[in-house]
Q: What sequence folds into this?
């Protein structure tokens, strides 16, 4: 069938909305009519070349939700009309990582930037009109009106799910929440610093507040984002890590924060060093943000790392299990304990995708969402 999708022909580059040929689903696959797609900074990393992919052109988007249009043969558990939220990381369910409760580290994740099917590097589901292959970002390409995906990447959700909001559970919400609760292991009474208040950072602020942190210090140079963080549960909101560190120390008898989560748009080693300086003895720095894949080095004092027993931990999709975490967070949303609507600043048409990313860079959005 025909669809329209936003592709990158090269990197650095800009998204271009074109007509695409979309294959029917095969065994273990579904074809989905998209309802909404979040506009994550990671797709911008693909556009800038910070996060290179194996095949160009590539159809972007990895945070989305939609309605099943058709189901591949011998594919149990799905039917046309089902609502699904995509997990940007697939979960096979039987590799070592999935079977030990670490679905975010599923072995299939090694293939999410190749653009083809997991089991065949020459098998694609999207093509240009001339028949040349188009890679699918993270195997799902939510920047397309329709997409054909492996069921490894889909989580079926209840019929009453508002997909235009719940699409955020497929990346930003789960990543921000898990970075604090799972990777950071926040405890009631903790002082927490959240460095960067985009979609992920805004959810991290909520997670810290909901988990009982006494002090939640949000850091962002943009005033609008600081104000948003305070509405979402931050007790303090400042423009710099220097200010955040001083506040954290003043609230903890000079010790510093128990946890600092780095959710800036484009990370460098210096960001991690600033977070490291803000935490106390046995404090934890959780690194969630992405930057150029070639960047190496974190300028932290080695003696302080050893003698203060500080920890630096990476966090992929919040160290979570999407098949259980997405339904759990959806229940919290329905119970009024998780704010998703408030994270969505602006909705865009697919044709306005580049304007959406311009707004992201300008700092006017917490999260932009494409509505189909």
A:
């Amino acid at each position: 069938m025909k669809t329209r999708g936003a592709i990158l022909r090269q990197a650095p580059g800009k998204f271009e909305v074109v007509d695409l040929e979309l294959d029917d689903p095969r065994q273990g696959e579904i074809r989905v009519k998209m309802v909404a797609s979040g506009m994550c900074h990671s797709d911008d990393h693909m556009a800038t070349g910070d996060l290179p992919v194996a095949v160009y052109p590539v159809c972007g988007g990895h945070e989305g939700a939609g309605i099943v249009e058709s189901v591949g043969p011998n594919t149990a558990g799905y039917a046309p009309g089902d609502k699904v939220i995509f997990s940007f990381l697939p979960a096979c369910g039987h590799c070592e990582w999935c079977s030990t409760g670490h679905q975010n580290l599923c072995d299939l994740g090694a293939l999410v930037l190749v653009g083809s099917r997991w089991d065949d590097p020459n098998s694609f589901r999207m093509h240009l009109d001339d028949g040349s292959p188009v890679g699918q970002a993270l195997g799902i390409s939510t920047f397309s009106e329709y997409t054909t995906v492996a069921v490894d990447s889909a989580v079926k959700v209840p019929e009453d799910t508002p997909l235009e909001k719940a699409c955020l559970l497929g990346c930003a919400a789960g990543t921000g929440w898990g970075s604090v609760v799972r990777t950071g292991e926040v405890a009631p009474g903790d002082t927490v610093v959240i460095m960067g208040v985009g979609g992920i950072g805004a959810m991290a602020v909520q997670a810290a507040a909901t988990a009982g942190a006494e002090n939640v210090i949000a850091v962002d140079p943009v005033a609008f984002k600081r104000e948003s963080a305070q509405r979402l549960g931050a007790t303090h909101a400042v423009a710099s890590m220097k200010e955040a560190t001083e506040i954290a120390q003043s609230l903890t008898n000079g010790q510093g924060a128990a946890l600092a989560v780095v959710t800036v748009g484009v990370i460098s080693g210096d960001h991690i060093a600033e977070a490291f300086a803000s935490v106390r003895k046995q404090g934890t720095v959780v690194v969630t943000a992405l930057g150029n894949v070639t960047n190496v080095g974190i300028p932290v004092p080695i003696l302080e790392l050893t003698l203060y027993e500080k920890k630096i931990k990476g966090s992929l999709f919040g160290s979570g299990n999407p098949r259980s975490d997405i339904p759990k967070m959806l229940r919290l949303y329905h119970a009024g304990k998780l704010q998703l609507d408030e994270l969505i600043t602006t909705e865009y048409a697919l044709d306005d995708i580049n304007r959406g990313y311009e707004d992201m860079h300008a700092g006017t959005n917490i999260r932009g969402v494409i509505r189909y």
Observations:
- Residues 322-334 form the longest helix (13 residues).
- The mean pLDDT is 96.
- The longest strand covers residues 29-38.
